[in-house]
Amino acid sequence: MQALPWWRNAVGYSIYLRSFADTDGNGVGDLRGVEAHLDHLDDLGVDLIWITPFYPSPLADFGYDVVDHMAVDPLYGDLDSFDELVDKVHRRGMRLLVDLVPNHTSIEHPWFRQARADPNGPHRDYYLWRDPAPDGGPPNNWVSYFGGPAWSFDLPSGQYYLHLFLPEQPDLNWRNPAVHTEFDRILRFWLDRGVDGFRIDVAQGLVKDRGLRSNPQRAPVDVAMDRLQQWDAFDHIHDIVQPESQEVFAGWRALCSAYDALLIGETSVATAEALARMLPGTGLHSGFWLSPAQLDWEPAALRRALTAPLASVPDRTTIAWVASTLDEKRPATRFGGGDRGRRRSLALSTLLFFLPGLVFLYQGEELGLVDGVVPPGRRLDPIADDPSGGRDGARTPMPWASGPSFEFSTNPDPWLPDGGRDTCDTVGHQRGRAASWLERYRALIAVRAATGAEREGDAEVVDLGTDDVIAFRRGRLMAVANLAERPMTVALRGEVLYNTHDTIEWAADGLVVREAQAVLLREGRS
């Protein structure tokens, strides 16, 4: 019998490196800070760690604007500290993914500097340049994820260059074979250092339409719109999810197979059907389904977010589920804040941990953290002033223990403020307390590990007669969660394996599920 891939059913943990742990006192998290807290991740039950970019960068987008893909920025350490981290992760039986940023580079990258300096040189075609439209404006109607046109004018050459994000992040031209060659070299560099794979940033965006045709427009774009509304005003059929990207991923998969390494895409798409197109089985091993991390607590929307990929993606084990990411408001905040938001967040996680595929926690999610408070004068996110809100609140430093800066750093003024945390939010306070959020998440991960063999089948959506309760069955195992604001009784009986609440209640006609309560059970007699 063929062994399952090591990442099958893995529990991942996303580390926003700048805010995880600082060991040199500069107020910025670093690689040795990750190493210093591996015991926390090991005790939590994590199999797989993904760390955000640590490459040299001018930090226009805090590391997602890279100037050298094969080096470590001194802010975070050096190659020796990276190698030590890989070794320490492996000694604990965990794996390490690094963030690969292939859609764009920094405007300060040597490739772009040469492309700009010499329009006739070999690096010009590493990027996407076009003449102005007849009216002198951008070549097409594409918009940036961060709002505004996706084109910036370069006065010396008289052409526009494309950027799906900031103007400081010019997009690479993946129709140029030289770009493929460069990134093959980059992947091998990190694989030879022992990494276990890559999280592919903006995986949906690499190859663009050959003719750079304008996207169909669904609604007028108004200056008062936030960046998300601007993006949603178009059908994105030419700027993202182009089929030729699969050729890139297939090449990387062949390269990674010799290292038994994982390719997991940041597949930021609007529909489960688009996610399925990103995961044909010949390229990326897995892709993030981001919808659960972008929703408020609305039963119908949450139900769709959980069930649509199961109906659309042929191999459900390729789905990577998340309730929280570094780019969105934390679920405890989105779901109402306080303990109510935390209970709802745990209920959603209970369902995600039950479904086929990988599942990832974002740092601090296991503590039930809400968004940190960042006053206007301290906001650093380049999209902080957008009406949709910035990402700083989800990126405030990890609270480890009581004390200055909650032991994130010896620096009393870290790069972002602590966010208004208190001692109850810290790892030190929650560890070992039976009712804490940390211990509840640790117990959830333990149940997932203990029931792995029983969860090998597909997940079946179970109709319990109400849309306010969502339930899934895998073999004899059931996961059920109440999305309503009142108790619901469902016709289920069985052995309770996990319960988000302190008590369980049975009625004559079945299980009583309270607001935001989720239960895992093995069907049978209760």
State the gist of this model:
By secondary structure, the chain is an alpha/beta fold. It has 13 helices and 19 strands. Helix content is 24%, strand content 16%.
CATH topology of the largest domain: TIM Barrel
CATH architecture assignment of the largest domain: Alpha-Beta Barrel
Q: How does the helix and strand content classify structurally?
A: alpha/beta
Largest sheet descriptor: 8 strands, parallel, barrel
Q: Flag low-confidence runs.
A: none
Number of domains: 3
Globally, the shape reads globular
What is the CATH class name of the largest domain? Alpha Beta
Count the beta strands: 19
Strand content: 15-25%
Which whole number gives the mean pLDDT? 97
Largest beta sheet: strand ordering = 1-2-3-7-8-9-10-11
- Let me know the CATH homologous superfamily of the largest domain: Glycosidases
Helix content: 10-25%
Number of helices in the DSSP assignment: 13
Distance between the termini: 36 Å
Rg, Cα atoms, Å: 23 Å
Plain-language structure description:
The protein has 526 residues and is an alpha/beta fold. It is globular and about 80 Å long. The longest helix is centred in the middle third of the chain and has 17 residues. The strands form 4 sheets. The protein has an 8-stranded parallel β-barrel with strand order 1-2-3-7-8-9-10-11, surrounded by 5 helices. It has a 5-stranded antiparallel sheet with strand order 12-13-14-19-16, with helices on one face. The chain has a 3-stranded antiparallel sheet with strand order 4-6-5, with no helix packed on it. The model has no long low-confidence stretch (mean pLDDT 97). The chain is built from 13 helices and 19 strands.
